[in-house]
Design goal:
By secondary structure, the chain is α+β, with helices and mostly antiparallel strands. The chain has a domain at 29-68 and 89-123 and 133-202. It is built from five helices and ten strands. It has helices spanning 34-44, 112-119, 158-173, 184-187, 193-202; strands at residues 7-10, 16-19, 22-25, 54-58, 63-73, 79-90, 98-104, 120-123, 126-129, 139-145. The strands form four sheets. Strands 1-5-6 form a three-stranded mixed sheet, with no helix packed on it. A hairpin with a 2-residue loop joins strand 2 (16-19) and strand 3. The longest helix has 16 residues, at 158-173.
Length: 212
């Protein structure tokens, strides 16, 4: 990855407002109801930090670190500036869907030295970790997108959430050795189909046709 440049344009998908010369991107955010969180905890248990192994997140609400060279443009598409930095951006698409995640331990991502050695990028002479800081408390990874076979919105309910988590747990029990595989290379390819294949292996091979 060293020497690779990111060239990205930030444009609001839902709505843009000009604030001075910069753009403010407004996101629709939601939190899962406590009843859903309880059912996910019941289905999947908790991790070493006392947090639920499974959680539900709204696409616009789930953010992740992405580093590189960015282009900021106004509503007319005119270039305002180029900057090299880490940005906290929506991690999943579709943005307007509920997604189920499962926690993976820090060791799934290798050691901190391995993490930074393999995620550091150079852009305009500056190095930065393209995937953000080392996940020393582990990280939640995508395992299911709630939508119907046509890709339409499906509402999140406690029963649906618990069913998905239990189904994945059953699949994981059949592939007990798969979590020994490292996550680092696949996270770098998150935008590609190879990431989905890795995630399903890491999460136990429980496939669902509507996974995103």
């Amino acid at each position: 990855m060293e020497g690779c440049l990111y060239d990205k344009s930030i444009r609001g998908v839902r709505r843009e407002q000009a604030v001075g010369r910069m753009i403010q991107v407004l996101r629709e955010t939601h939190q899962p109801p406590p009843s859903v969180e309880r059912r996910l905890l019941l289905a999947g248990g908790s991790n070493r930090f006392g947090e639920a192994n499974y959680r539900a997140v709204w696409g616009w609400s789930r953010l992740g670190w992405v580093g590189g060279k960015w282009q900021d443009r106004n509503a007319a598409g005119e270039l305002l500036r180029e900057v090299v930095e880490l940005r906290y951006l929506p991690k999943y698409t579709p943005h307007d869907r509920w997604h189920i995640e499962r926690w993976l331990p820090p060791e799934a991502y290798g050691s901190p030295d391995e993490w930074y050695a393999q995620t550091l990028e150079l852009a305009d002479g500056r190095s930065l970790p393209a995937l953000g800081p080392y996940p020393d408390r582990g990280e939640y990874e995508h395992c299911f997108t709630l939508q119907d076979p046509r890709g339409e919105f499906v509402q999140l309910t406690p029963t649906v959430a618990e069913y998905i988590a239990r189904a994945i747990e059953i699949g994981r029990s059949r592939y007990s050795g798969t979590e020994r595989r490292r996550a680092l290379a696949a996270r770098d390819e998150r935008a590609e189909k190879a990431y989905d294949a890795w995630a399903w292996e890491m999460l136990g091979g429980a496939r669902c046709d509507s996974a995103g």
